[in-house]
């Protein structure tokens, strides 16, 4: 057994051992509903939520557990393999194909025991939030948007106010181009003792700076829906990566192959002036003692010639699911219905804690954190995010297809592995990206042809939208039929 699997097994054993002695049968006087996620910064919040829910529903006890993100990705699959999975769990990988993937793995049940959720439940979300192939399958509803998709997401640039002031820079006039970012870094490095950019680069952690910079070029996705192909080898994206390498070579990125926790601590401690990340980070800074008046949120910088792309706005907010092995289905539904009440306890406490934005309530009404308000103002600017095309809306049979899932299942972190290898080794990304794209594309195209021969109405045309321009929303009115 390799080390990662051993650690995951230990984590799973620890979680299950901690749960020993609790009830998991709805026939007992009190049902214990087990919920798993990896939101370590929300542990106290979840405890408060569980206590309030049980106060209102004395027959249901909430056991909400969080572990580190890396270990969670290993532990949850092991839990399903050993038939000891939680009742409700958090999972958002490979959106908007998340539901299709989990159905193929037999991980989920419908939200409601009957399969059909009440109209007053779906009415909490904007029209178009429940889509066949994304959170509905076979007439049954499996998911719901937890995070909204305009404000929520990566691509924001956080600036340390004190370090920018020491360097003679003004955070009200943040770097807006790649050249301006380099110039700001040069001043910061030469006039302070701090690093310019704290950027994690351990495995998938490289996504934070990559998403921010690639989002102004094409999208922050690894698939190009305009051309219908995997895109890491795109010349414009290769130039984006070369720019990151230039920053590192100039000494503007903190040295070391660091994880997000280390890089965040650098920023919070005033050891770095810039950090790229998402809507969720203000709550992290709060937990680390960094008040919102100590930093500024700005849009990510674009190429000097201007933005030619936008961060992806897609159906990726479906994150909490009912586990297929639960014996407490009714209790799971009761909790999720309670959790998503637009004016309920969960919503109000979530915003008090500054955790971000939700899809099922009025964000303008509840957001009070100054940093999140800055984020909302940035995301509302035209062209910052753009709704990307959705293959399943063009070809409904894509919901039954396994082709894309097979293509991305081969070395799921391959894109990050290639970028980290090139960054650490100081070599060009192009050869690694070319091999990656060739193999992923071959799997996708071959499997689609096999499925089409078997009767599914699928083809590469389902993944190709030549009338999309990367910077504007691909609206629902643009799907034929």
Automatic annotation (TrEMBL):
Keyword Signal belongs to the record: yes
In which domain of life is the source organism classified?
Bacteria
Keywords from the UniProt entry: Signal
Phylogenetic classification of the source organism: Bacteria, Bacillati, Actinomycetota, Actinomycetes, Streptosporangiales
Query: This chain belongs to which protein, by name?
Result: ABC transporter substrate-binding protein
Gene3D superfamilies of this UniProt entry? Periplasmic binding protein-like II (3.40.190.10)
Q: Which residues form the signal peptide?
A: 1-19
PROSITE patterns (alphabetical): PROKAR_LIPOPROTEIN
Recorded hits in InterPro entries, A to Z, give: Bact_solute-bd_prot1 (IPR050490), SBP (IPR006059)
């Amino acid at each position: 057994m390799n080390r990662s699997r051993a650690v995951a097994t230990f984590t799973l054993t620890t979680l299950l051992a901690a749960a020993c002695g609790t009830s998991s049968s709805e026939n007992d006087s009190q049902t214990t509903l087990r919920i798993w996620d990896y939101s370590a910064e929300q542990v106290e919040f979840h405890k408060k939520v569980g206590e309030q829910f049980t106060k209102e529903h004395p027959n249901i006890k909430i056991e909400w557990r969080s572990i580190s993100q890396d270990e969670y990705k290993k532990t949850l699959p092991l839990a399903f393999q050993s038939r000891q999975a939680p009742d409700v769990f958090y999972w958002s990988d490979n959106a908007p194909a998340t539901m299709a993937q989990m159905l193929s793995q037999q991980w989920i049940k419908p939200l409601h025991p009957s399969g059909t959720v009440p109209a007053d439940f779906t009415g909490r979300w904007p029209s178009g939030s429940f889509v066949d192939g994304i959170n509905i399958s076979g007439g049954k509803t499996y998911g719901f948007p937890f995070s909204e998709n305009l404000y929520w997401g990566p691509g924001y640039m956080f600036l340390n106010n004190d370090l920018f002031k020491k360097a003679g820079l003004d955070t009200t006039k943040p770097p807006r181009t790649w050249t301006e970012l380099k110039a700001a870094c040069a001043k910061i490095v030469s006039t302070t003792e701090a690093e310019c950019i704290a950027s994690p680069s351990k495995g998938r952690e490289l996504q934070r700076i990559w998403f921010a910079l690639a989002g102004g070029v094409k999208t922050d996705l690894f698939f190009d829906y305009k051309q219908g192909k995997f895109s890491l080898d795109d010349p414009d994206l290769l130039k984006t990566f070369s720019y990151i390498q230039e920053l590192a070579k100039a000494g503007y990125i903190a040295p070391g192959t660091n994880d997000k926790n280390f890089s965040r601590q650098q920023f919070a401690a005033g050891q770095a002036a810039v950090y790229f990340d998402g809507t969720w980070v203000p709550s992290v800074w709060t937990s680390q003692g960094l008040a919102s008046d100590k930093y500024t949120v700005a849009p990510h910088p674009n190429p000097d010639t201007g933005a030619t792309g936008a961060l992806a706005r897609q159906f990726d907010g479906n994150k909490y699911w009912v586990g297929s092995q639960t014996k407490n289905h009714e209790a799971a539904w009761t909790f999720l219905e309670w959790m998503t009440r637009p004016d309920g306890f969960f919503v109000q406490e979530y915003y008090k804690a500054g955790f971000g934005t939700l899809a099922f309530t009025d964000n303008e009404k509840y957001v009070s954190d100054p940093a999140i308000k800055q984020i909302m103002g940035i995301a509302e600017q035209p062209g910052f995010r753009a709704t990307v095309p959705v293959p399943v809306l063009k070809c409904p049979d894509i919901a039954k297809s396994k082709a894309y899932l097979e293509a991305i299942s081969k070395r799921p972190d391959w894109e990050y592995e290639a970028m980290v290898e090139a960054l650490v080794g100081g070599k060009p990304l192009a050869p690694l990206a070319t091999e990656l794209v060739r193999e992923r594309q071959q799997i996708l195209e071959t499997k689609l042809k096999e499925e089409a021969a078997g009767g599914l109405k699928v083809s590469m045309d389902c993944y190709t939208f030549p009338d999309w321009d990367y910077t504007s929303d691909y609206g629902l009115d643009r799907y034929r039929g």
